[in-house]
Amino acid sequence: MSDGRTIELQEYKSEIKPTWCPGCGDFAVLNGLQRALQVLQIEPWNIVIVSGIGCSSNIPHFLSTYGFHSIHGRAVPVASGIKLANPELTVIAAGGDGDGYGIGVGHFIHAMRRNLDITYIVMDNQIYGLTTGQASPTSEKGMVTKSTPEGVIENPVNPLTLALASGATYVARGFSGDAKGLGDLFAKGIKHKGFSLIDVLSPCVTYNKINTYDWFRQRVYSLEKEGHNPSDYLAAVARADEWPNLDQKRDRIGLGVFYERNDIPTYEDLEPALRKGPLVRQPLGLENPEELLEEFR
Amino acid sequence: MSQKELVFRIGGAAGDGSASTAESLAKICTRSGLYVFTYTSYQSVIRGGHSWVQVRAAEEPVLSQGERPQVLICLNQPTADIHAPQVRENGAIIYDSDTIKLDGLRIAEDVRRIGFPLGRTAREYSNNALMKNTVALGAAVRLFDLDLAVVESAFATVWGKKKREIVDANVKAAAAGYKHVEENGGSLNLGLRYTGKARLLITGNQAIALGALAAGCKFLAQYPMTPASSIMHWMADHAPKHGVVVKQVEDELAAMNMAIGAGFAGVRSMTATSGGGFCLMVEAIGQGGMVEAPVVAVLAQRAGPSTGLPTKTEQGDLNLALGAGQGDWPRAILAPRNTDECFRLTAEAFNLAEVYQTPVIVMSDLYLSEGYRTVEGFDFNVPIIRGLLAADGGTPREKFLRYKITESGVSPRALPGQPGFQFDAGTDEHDEKGELISDVLAGIPEYVEIRKQMMDKRMRKLDGLRRDTKGPELWGPGKADLTLISWGSTQGPLREAILDLQESDGLAVNSLEYAYIFPFHVDETKAALKRAKTTMAVEGNFTGQFSRLLTAETGIRPDHLFAKYDGEPFYPSEIAGKVREVLG
Fold first, then answer.
1. Which positions ≥6 away from A224 have C-beta within 8 Å?
2. What is the pLDDT of residue B396?
């Protein structure tokens, strides 16, 4: 904090009231994120929250930070552009499962292999809510939705194994029924140098009648309590594969940090143009333009 | 044109090295003090097929690639079969007599057949198979009375960094070709004077990238696509030194979204692509208009539709640029008419994008983007105008109005990191703060009014953009029997046709040329066309996309349309032919 004062939780809140349905899992994400930012004491003006489109993507409006409520599926590239322009900013991408794992899945994979220092929070409710209940990339096989009246016949995306395969250096799963745990996972993810994915089981109380708070409570367990070692890649893959998977086993769903690596340089670390500091602070124009013309003579 | 000129053509299979040999000759001509214009006809293959390059040079500025060559180098038999009949009277054909035969070809009278063992000669100096091109180049240099010392200096520039041996071997190979012609007929006696006056030889894409750099571009996100890729190549080469992040991304969706993110964060950013990639950018560029983020998008056109002719030229993407994105949002579209304008208009695009906080599209095409042209130099005193920025420091008492309704439509812009100015950039319709009015507020009378005000505010920027850009240029005689209407890269061949018609037919033809396409300059257009007797639009697309814009904006319909959509550039002779048809 520039003046040495502690920033209060209230200062991360905006005057805009969330429009989510009562009971929506996204409330816990919002509260968890505000608490994480307060714990880390990052000035609101040095934070940009970038979202896509969907219920959960309204989240930037509910915080007092800078926000960019972009278009469907493109939160991650917009966030990447902001981070590359000014790596001193804390850049958080946020959105839903349709946004990140459906329409935007290409960007998701490439951002992870780049290991940009961005935190990506996916509020995963396994359904398209804002468009009134169609199947999403994480809808479980057999789920009946408006677009799949006979039940989904595709296998769901497993965001965690996908992230592990794509080079994310912080892979975690939270649950909106565990607000305290969410705040901790977000704070760790934001502090982590490199790309962090936090997939949040964030129930849609209106359109997903299967994967409810109760359904999750019967299945979730703490990775930490079971002694999972987040530096063990193969163990992380095995834990991530517990759900969802091709065998449709769904009795154990781990929560916490699956994987974390802190020795991989970020994209910003390796980008030569950023060695002189953030692009936003570089002088504009050319110092010695005639030099550039030599090759054309 | 009646002026003294040199027209050279080299052809072979892709991978035979036609392009680099032609480039060397273009450099040699430039260093000798000539104006140069090149056109490369190539195909979408890495090896094989048929590609050729034409280099045209003269003492006066050259406006097009020209037509029949005086000197042809055949690197394979198909080149001889296709191009030998086009060589002018008293010209020359250089070929490897071991592998290529000219028998049975319809070749003009008095064309010198300079066949000698290029490959065998080359092997005396190097094992590199492409060295035979240098032998042939040396022969052409002698035919054109160019100086071997200039050849050596050009080679030193091209290969000097790598190895001195390569330069030496090439110089020797060129000298061998030179000597062969010296001993077998000598010069073509074209009578060109070589003043040695220094100029620059540069492609449109290089000029675009240079213009961007001069304007302070700090971020380029791009996905490879012909004919835009060389913008990324040149920028990547110079990026570390000049502090530019050049990011090759996963697709054009990412390219445009990243560039907008960087623009929002406060750096001058750009992306470049061709029509197919621009299609993928369409949703995101509309986002730029809605959140009022500056970004420059270069759209280097090639022949469509769909994958079309990836290595051929066209001006077929104007409708795409005009209509990109759902709904109405303010955009500027600039179309450089020549290489010099590639530099100037790109630099200007960054100012327009920041002053009006909206995307600006710079439209080039393969013909302009990839062709080497001579320019006198560039004016690096590029003004950098960043537009209305929120005052730094202190927390505003009221919440900051990022989208404040103003007369100009432009609101003060805050950059992330500025304390107290936090706002939300929303792609949903929003109020002055940036808070969305699309969900629980849409349709409520007060917000119906806000929606209308926000649309009006954004669209008012078009008035400023129109004011800050220029109307069309009327070129040629004030009183003319025919006024040709063109936009972008058609300028050169069009002007050459006008000059030729004047000289050979005594016809008075002028041209109304547009470099600033949108917002459209209605008043200037009406004033210019009021004086026109007959008009003909000359466009590189099927439907006359620019003519339709002109008609939509002014109610004036050009009398004739010369629409070219065969993938080839305009040739002055075909424009002149159309003019004669119309006036005849």
1. A256, A257
2. 64
